[in-house]
Amino acid sequence: MFGATTSRSCIGPLAGPQEGGCGRAADQLTPKSMSILPEIPAPDGMGRQHVAPAPRQVRRVVAALRDIGAGLTMWRLALSLGWLDIRLRYRGSALGPFWLTLSSAIMIGAMGLIYGRLFHMDLHGYLPYLALSMILWQVGVSGVLGEACTCFTDAERMIRAVRLPFFLQAMRMMVRTAIVFGHNIVVPLGVFLLLGVWHGAAMLMALPGVALWLVNGLASALLLGSICARFRDIPPIVGSVVQVAFYVTPVMWSASQLKGRDWWFELNPFYPLLEVVRGPLLGQVPALRIWVEAGLGSGLLCLAALYVFSRSRSQLAFWV
C-alpha cells in the first residue's frame, strides 16, 4: 500500500511509463521538457564583458564633486542660514555688527596717526591704504581662515540631524563673512569720501579679485574644516600663522618701503591676493605677474581642498 503510493508520487512530467521513472527521468528529456528548466547565467568573461570598478580615490572625488554640486543648488538655504547666524550672534545688541565697524574705525584712525608719523607717510595717501588693507585682512583673510577652521564643528547638530551636503556649511560660512565684510567696508569707503579719494570706474577691476577671494574662501572651508574636524589643535596653529603673516605682509606698511628687497613677496601667498583687490580700489592696475601668482595659488588651494575633502567626507559626521 505504501509502496504503490510512493511509485505514483515519483511519476512526473519527466518520467515515462516505465517502472522506476524517478531513476530514469534523465533518459526521457526532450527539447519541449527542457524549456521548463531555469537558465543558468554564464560566468564572467564568457557571456559578457567584465567592467572593472573605478579606483577608490576616483569614486571619492566624484562623490565630493556631487556634494559640491548639490550644495550649490541650495544657495537660498545657505543665505538664510548665514543671515540667521548673524542675527543670533548679535541678538540683543543695539548696533549689531556695526560694533565691529565702530571699533575698526577707531583702530584705523589711531594707527593712521601713529604709523603715518613713524613711516613718514602722507596721511592723504596712507590713511586710505591702511583702512582698506586692515579691513581686507581682518575680514577677508584672518576672519575667513578662522571661520573655515570651525566650519563643520560649528554645524555639529545640523550635520548629525539632517542629511545635507557638507558644501552647504562652507557656503553658509561665506555668507556670514560677506555680511560682516559689508558692514566693515563702510570704514575705508568713508575714508575715501572724506579725503576725496575716488577712482571711478577703475575700481570695478577689483570684482575679479573679489570672485577669486570667494572661491578661495570656499576652498579654505573645505580644506581647513575637514582637517580641524579631525585634529582640534589645528585652529590655534592657524591663528598663530595668520598673526605672523600679518606683520610680514604689506598691510600696515607699503611694499615700496622695502627698496628693492621685494623677493620676499614671491614667497608670500597673501600678497598677490591682497593686491588683486586692493590695487584697483586704490587706482592701481596689478601687474600680470600678480594675477598669475594669485591664480596659481588659488588653483593649488582648490586642488588641495578637493583632495582632503574627498578623503575625509565619509568620516566628517563622526569627527564633528
From TrEMBL:
Membrane topology: Multi-pass membrane protein
UniProt keyword list: Cell membrane, Membrane, Polysaccharide transport, Sugar transport, Transmembrane, Transmembrane helix, Transport
Presence of the UniProt keyword Nucleus in the record: no
Gene Ontology biological process: lipopolysaccharide transport; polysaccharide transport
Entry superkingdom: Bacteria
Spans traversing the lipid bilayer: 98-118, 130-152, 173-195, 201-225, 237-255, 290-309
A single GO cellular-component term on record: plasma membrane
ABC-2 type transporter transmembrane domain location: 80-279
Subcellular location: Cell membrane
GO molecular function: ABC-type transporter activity
Major location (coarse): membrane
Presence of keyword Transmembrane: yes
Family: Belongs to the ABC-2 integral membrane protein family.
PANTHER family cross-referenced by the UniProt entry: CAPSULE POLYSACCHARIDE EXPORT INNER-MEMBRANE PROTEIN CTRC (PTHR30413:SF10), INNER MEMBRANE TRANSPORT PERMEASE (PTHR30413)
Protein name in the entry: ABC transporter permease
